[in-house]
Amino acid sequence: MRIFENLESEVRGYIRSFPTIFTKAKGAILTDEQGIEYIDFFAGAGTLNYGHNNDAISNALIKYLQNDGIVHGLDMATTAKKEFLQTFQDLILKPRNLEYKVQFTGPTGTNAVETALKLARLVKGRSNVVAFTNGYHGLSQGSLAVTGNNEYRDESYISRINATFMPYDGYFGDMNTLEYFRKFLEDGSSGVDLPAAVILETIQGEGGINVASKEWLQELEAICREFDILLIVDDIQVGNGRSGDFFSFEFAGINPDMVTLSKSIGGGLPMAVLLFKPDLDQWKPGEHTGTFRGNNLAFVASKVSLENYWVNDDLSNAVAYKEKTLKESLEKIAKKHSENYNIDVRGRGLAYGFEVKNDKSIAGEISEYCFKEQLICETCGSDGQVVKFLPPLVIDEETLKEGLKRFETAVDKLFAEKKERLTGEF
Predict the structure, then answer these.
(1) pTM for this structure?
(2) How many percent of the chain have pLDDT more than 70?
């Protein structure tokens, strides 16, 4: 690991949590240089919904490159882009009765968020944007302004003059936080300017796997319509099937004005898009650009992903089935240790969190013990207090159960050692 310590910036993060050198990967398995296999419950922070080195995707990419297909094309018309757009329209938009224009932004999620914020302000002629507590939308300046965690913001001395925060669903327990939001909008003396847009995740990934209810999302959409506010759903981490549906908001029956997509939309390759209703397409040609907004390899990978997993409901049904296994296993582990620990299990689809509410520091220790058991799990939440589960959607049942068995072993060992240490103090 010395080469990384000597040459790579101190900003590196995940390498510290998972200190080994990985050399290959397949499906839900990562293998390091010593030949040790790790079950991956991280999936590139939600980028690898279809697994590592998916055969259908890899074969299509190899064939495309062997035929000298266009790799870089800015926003020029290419066969790869044409075929992706047609497939996305036929398999995703039309079946869901969604009418969106597609804008290819720079290749990362924060590029899509920046584009959405810029377009919303352009269309509405207003600067304020409302975001929610514990929300995460990226680490470039505009995205940081609507990101809740001050650990990220403080490093950049970010200005907040164009963003206002409101409490997310469940932030105050049983209180309806949208009544609070509505009061600010109705009161001309609240100090909150009428926003151009509201931006949110339906499942807050980095924020701690906080899940918005169907009713809350429907009420939020109604408020946006009443006050002429654009509704932006950030589906970068929990879209592309993570919730079970392709879009995480489908279960609520809402129709956002804009949707940001990245991570798994590229089939594991860098790609980000902004979807928006046609009447919002008020850009002048070239008004918002990016050198790598046309990743043709990602177009190829995405097209194949859509064709392999979204022609029917098989993947959605599989996610629902695996969610049951994941949820029941985590709840069983939580119950086993309920005498000493207050553990909350929450999530939707294959995005779940395991929080020890009476010890915020323990999630990081659990992640370390998981790594010792050859399981990759990261943490999330405002204080890194939640163990986060994002396995590939295509993980087979045997591997999922083995991963959960390793998680249980890790938790049992850690809690047993903590009990021993505590007993030894008296």
Answers:
(1) 0.96
(2) 97
